[in-house]
Automatic annotation (TrEMBL), chains A, B, C, D:
InterPro entries: Peptidase_C15 (IPR000816), Peptidase_C15-like (IPR016125), Peptidase_C15-like_sf (IPR036440). Gene3D superfamilies: Peptidase C15, pyroglutamyl peptidase I-like. The keyword DNA damage does not apply. Keywords: Cytoplasm, Hydrolase, Protease, Thiol protease. GO terms for molecular function: cysteine-type peptidase activity. Belongs to the peptidase C15 family. This is Peptidase. GO terms for biological process: proteolysis. Transmembrane segments: none annotated.
Length: 213, 213, 213, 213
């Protein structure tokens, strides 16, 4: 019997909702492939979120941590391969107005850490389930990348037997409509994926990560 | 009591399925907002399809014709505004190998015809239903544009009390996966929309077009 | 000996410059393939610009009118095929704050007019000159489309022996940098083309249009 | 007086030319900001190129290594931030038909290495020169990423006082036309940048890297 910590984020920027929050809440309490899922939602703050996340890992002692985040404009579920030692806001401040530019997350940390969930197996499994996904080589430099990097760094520093990874989620249809530019007049509408399909993608990802341990 | 002819196309190019075929078949026989839907699937042939389509209109005498087609890479339901008097293959031959380049559909026809279904009302209604859509100003120059143009030209030439329009559909998730480029290695995955959501979009569009007549 | 009226627009939206203005000014007074080029810059106003344009045509009696406009995000020179009878701001008001939504340009006008400059020959010629270009099937619904539609409508109504068309220009490099989103932090930079190459594209287009008359 | 090794690649995939080859050859022998540039072109082979590259570094003992590569579809000069320990062909085999899938470059190597040329200063300098550029967080997983990773790994293993980095170049206009899909019929044309502007971007990048040492 294992435990999976599934993390989401509060809404940020001008978006009214965040699929990562919705899905972390939906799957909280589910048992998936024999792993008890604990879903939790974190604030979007460069200066505190990774500490809160690591504190929670320390407390819960999970076997797997899968973090979720919203990636506007992406067309599919993105299974992130690597987190890098950079905090940079890319024009989007966090929810308390902080926007670092090209700063390290950990002053003496490694340049980057690979996710340790089986990213290739997950994208193949999602394809088998008719859910569009891909491996992504960059989680950006915002809080999402920070979570991926920080959890690996924490696991290594503390010699934890912990697998972790990050999944970037596309817009929900409602967010795509909210973000569309003049759609009644041939403007653009960003790509999206219904929340039920996104939730199923996360469920399958947890199952593959659990079965591969 | 009105009749709606809902047309789809057979698969073309290298795609194994065509959402327009699936949805025309699914909705065939449904009654939507008091309109009897007759769903039919047409071949992808520059030289015959518009004749077959006009023959069927002549036979069935529908009040509304809504034609559906696949638009690879589009991110949302596209309600087409206008059909133009051009056949051009754009690198994709039809299913019998014919590929015209910048030829007129009708030698002495008008340059273009607006769709007469209420395109603005439809995109607003789809947004109300949380289905991403937009007005599109170009249906391309392949069979899809041909259908939109040819049905309007036929209705005008024969003085028919017929409203018609065209809806371009995105990839289904299965088609997006089939068309993805190296997704297990950070390639690209085109945008998609589940067939159930696409079907609901078409159902709502027929309802709005019927109620507005 | 012929005359070509080459029109550009003042800057609009938040852009500090407009390549169409720069190029209309640069080519003003040149003789290209035996055609005297008169370059003029027009304001960006839905309610007046087409009148100003038609008045100028009435005065100058040119053989060819080629109108230029900026198309943010396009990757290449776009030779427009057709102008449609729609004014719609698509989220961008004109320079006096007017933003129509899906209104006709001419209440009883045709649905659309094809450009009468030789669009296919122009894109082939530009390719021969190593300048990326394409035929575009939509000039949008802003002032650019308005110019293409209005000049054709005016020529037809007044039975003028006038060829006309529209060329959409990409960002200059400076505009791309100005419009880039957080490029020092892996944000996006829109595509662009240097003004010298854009100018050469317009020069070649005028030459082809002149030689084909 | 310093030495800069500037590397390019032979053409690969179906592309007839490679801007990285052209520019490495053009700048070979130039002195830029007091650094002697040695331009060299390498084969596109997963199994040998990084060895050839490291052998050449061993021989030449340069102060700076800047590697160039073609990144189809990118809109601007991309200054790469990081190379990761992954070889993966992403659907494009190398020039002898080898296509690894998600394999490590160095079995026991670090997960990734940051470029040590001043990436932020370079993008700011290019913007000052009206050349569109951005920091990129992923150099992919093909030979380009391999060069960035392998040179840093080699420098660290051999304790070299060597700064190195990677610049991804967009299509030249000729390559964009060659890669365009049906541009005479409203197909798509990928973004591009003239080779002179690309060359100037590389020249400025070498100058900034040299001045910052």
């Amino acid at each position: 019997m294992t435990t999976t910590l599934l993390t989401g984020y509060e809404p940020f920027d001008d978006y009214e909702t965040n699929p990562s929050e919705t899905i972390a809440n939906r799957l909280d309490g589910e048992q998936i492939a024999g792993s008890d899922v604990v879903g939790e939602v974190f604030p979007v703050e460069f200066e505190h979120t990774n500490e809160l996340l690591c504190d929670r890992i320390n407390e819960l002692d999970p076997d797997i941590v899968i973090s979720l985040g919203l990636a506007p404009e992406r067309t599919a579920i993105n299974i992130e391969r690597i987190g890098i030692n950079v905090n940079s806001g890319t024009g989007v401040p966090d929810n308390v107005g902080v926007e670092p530019e090209n700063e390290p997350i950990e002053a003496d940390g490694s340049d980057a850490h690979f996710a340790t969930i089986p990213v290739t197996k997950i994208v193949r499994d999602l394809a088998d389930g008719d859910i569009p996904s891909r491996i992504s080589n960059t989680a950006g430099t915002h809080l999402c990348n920070n979570a991926l990097y920080s959890v690996r760094e924490y696991a290594i520093q503390n010699d934890l037997d912990l697998d972790s990874g990050f999944i970037h989620l596309p817009f929900s249809p409602a967010l795509a409509i909210e973000s569309a530019d003049a759609y009644v007049s041939a403007g653009t509408v960003p790509p999206s994926m219904p929340l039920d399909l996104q939730t199923e993608a996360v469920r399958r990802s947890i199952a593959v990560a659990t079965e591969e341990r």
